Amino acid sequence: MTDRHEQDAGNGREQPVDWEARGAVARLVLGQMATQALGTAVRLGVFDRIGPDELSAGALAGSLGTHPQATLRLLRALAGLQLLSETEPGAFRTTTAGDALRADTPGTMVAMARMFTDPVMLRGWDLLDESVRTGETTFDTVFGTDFFGHLKEHPELSASFNEAMSQGTRLTAATVPHHYDFGRFHTLVDIGGGDGTLLASVLREHPKLRGVLFDTAEGLAQAPRRLAQEGLTKRVTLETGDFFASAPAGGDLYLLKSIIHDWDDERCAAILRHIRDVVPDHGSLLIVEPVLPATVPPDRQDNVYLSDLNMLVNVGGRERTADDFAALCTAGGFALRSVTPLPAPNIFQIVEASPV
After folding, report:
1. 78: closest CA among 42, 123, 25, 120?
2. DSSP character for 343?
3. By C-alpha distance, which of 254, 264, 252, 276 is closest to 329?
4. What is the pTM (predicted TM-score) of this model?
5. Which of 148, 200, 244, 324 has the fewest CB atoms within 10 Å, i.e. the most exposed one?
6. Contact (CB, 8 A) for 204 and 213
7. What is the tens place of the pLDDT at every residue in 224-250?
8. Residues with catalytic annotation?
9. Cα–Cα distance between 286 and 307 in angstroms, integer?
10. Rounded distance, CA 107 to CA 134, Å?
11. pLDDT tens digits for 98-144?
């Protein structure tokens, strides 16, 4: 290979190199380094320390107790990732993207960034080739227990996970209440609803609706504070339980947001059957998840396919197509009624099903 051309083995002619394509591949090859730089910056509190103003690398190193030159090199790497801008040699401010990594910014993603760059989320990925060969999770291999069992044993990590899920749900929570007719129901049961971010958003928009928030004790740990902040304590009942064992009765609308993709088909069908046992015949089921198209769109980059691999590596679930959801609903005693995409940039869709 020459500097600018490659030899075509078939006809002996030199063929032009697509340097843009090679650059795209290089960015992917170095992607893990970008993740580690971002994770380190979040754990050190770099974006919060810089804040809304400008700060020098030396001043930042002094406040963090880090090595001055190494700090400068980290900040320049972050500028190369367009999370910071270097306004003059050694002086930095956050970009719009970097602002999303400050805790004091509306719509902050700092908890999500911290969780998804944590070794607990990343170490299983080191064995992705094993997952691809076997179809099994590698999280269990690395940590000796399943993902949610590990969270149960580490309350601080569980709280971080809950906050990350809350942050990841906020865009969907702001959108879902306006894209479904919740007003025709009287009690919404949010299965696996965590701190109640989505449930609270729906109840704010529909003041006659009552809610039930159902999750494990670990999942509900931050819910009382969230509901109190929203002024919804009297309209929501908290119920602790295991959705593989039962679902709470009393609702006419049941909601599963980002639950189905965590589990294999057999476990998902078990969750749905427990809901079918308690939902009235006139009730409905909503599943809020990404819905994969039949084929990957050639002109769109979509993180949902990386999420699909994350489900494989860490929890044993998967993202699904509309046909997959229809089959799951049938196995759980429901019939798929509709699939409604939420407006971009949301990647989620509302899958509605009726009891049969």
Report:
1. 42
2. P
3. 276
4. 0.88
5. 244
6. no
7. 999 999 999 999 999 999 999 999 999
8. 261
9. 21
10. 38
11. 999 999 998 899 999 999 999 999 999 999 999 999 999 999 999 99
